[in-house]
Amino acid sequence: MRPTTTAMMLLLFCAGLAAMSIAEATSSPQSAASAQPGANTLTAAEKAAGWRLLFDGKTTAGWRGFRKTEMPAGWTVEAGALTRSATAGDIVTVDEFADFELAFDWMIAPAGNSGVFGRVTEDSTAVWHSAPEYQILDNKGHADGKVPETTAGSAYALYAPAKDVTRAPGEWNQGRIVMKGAHVEHWLNGVKIVEFEVGSPDWTERVAKSKFKPYPQFGRAVRGRISIQDHGDKVSYRNIKLRPL
């Protein structure tokens, strides 16, 4: 009986290992298919520091279409993430903000493109006419990834990131935008990658050579809305929170 019992125990042990491997392979913490435990919440310390959630993880409350009164149907909540799942258009926050620190997680589809803007106004026909863009991109799969000034985390078409610290499509990245007066910072996955001063000689020269030249109001608003761009690709956002400065 000893050989039979030993063989059975070995077989059960191997089966257990196989089951554990399958479970690990199908429960990646970066997957968009399941919600992150504790996502879209604030800690006691964050609340004390003045942070507020701009997305509750369950509804699109607090957002609407750019120059619209309703939220476009193509923006939906999937597994606790605000997701561009179909043709929709750019969206903006209902509230306006002046100086702030904005934090958000983002996940882009392969070859995808999107963007996040601060201090957007609705005086013109497009979001990008009034505010600089924090580029959201699959650097390797999209054509914009070939030009440093249009890669992920850049101030689109103006300032290139100091380095590429993006994660692969289908994985979550942590973005951060700081806007205090004329000073702007872009952070990605814990690294400050862009820094500039709106209205400085350097800024003025770069804008004059860019597609933003025809829009004298570009980047000049001292108060405006947060905006997320629909560039025609699937993209998801979660843990969107803001702290007034």
Mean pLDDT: 90
The H-and-E topology, N to C, reads as: HHEEEEEEEEEEEHEE
Q: What's the CATH topology name?
A: Jelly Rolls
Number of domains: 1
CATH architecture: Sandwich
Structural class: alpha+beta
Helical element count?
3
Q: How much strand?
A: 25-35%
Q: Profile the largest sheet.
A: 8 strands, antiparallel
Helix content: 10-25%
Total number of beta strands: 13
Query: Which CATH class?
Result: Mainly Beta
CA radius of gyration is 22 Å
CATH superfamily: Exo-inulinase, domain 1
Poorly predicted runs of 5 or more residues: 1-32
Apparent shape: globular
Distance N terminus to C terminus?
A: 75 Å
Summarize it.
This protein has a single domain (43-244), classed as Jelly Rolls (Sandwich), CATH 2.60.120. The protein has 3 helices and 13 strands; from the N terminus they run H-H-E-E-E-E-E-E-E-E-E-E-E-H-E-E.
Give a structural overview:
This protein is α+β, with helices and mostly antiparallel strands and 245 residues long. It has a single domain, classed as Exo-inulinase, domain 1 (Jelly Rolls), CATH 2.60.120. The chain has 3 helices and 13 strands, in the order ααβββββββββββαββ. Strands 1, 3, 4, 6, 9, 10, 11 and 13 form an 8-stranded antiparallel β-sheet that branches. It has a 5-stranded antiparallel β-sheet with strand order 2-5-12-7-8, with no helix packed on it. A hairpin with a 2-residue loop joins β3 and β4.
Summary keywords:
alpha+beta, Jelly Rolls, five-stranded antiparallel beta sheet, 3 helices, eight-stranded antiparallel beta sheet
How are the elements arranged and paired?
Blueprint: H1 2-25, H2 44-48, E1 52-53, E2 63-65, E3 75-78, E4 81-84, E5 91-93, E6 100-108, E7 113-120, E8 133-137, E9 173-180, E10 183-188, E11 191-197, H3 201-208, E12 225-228, E13 235-244
Antiparallel strand pairs: 1-13, 2-5, 3-4, 4-13, 5-12, 6-9, 6-13, 7-8, 7-12, 9-10, 10-11
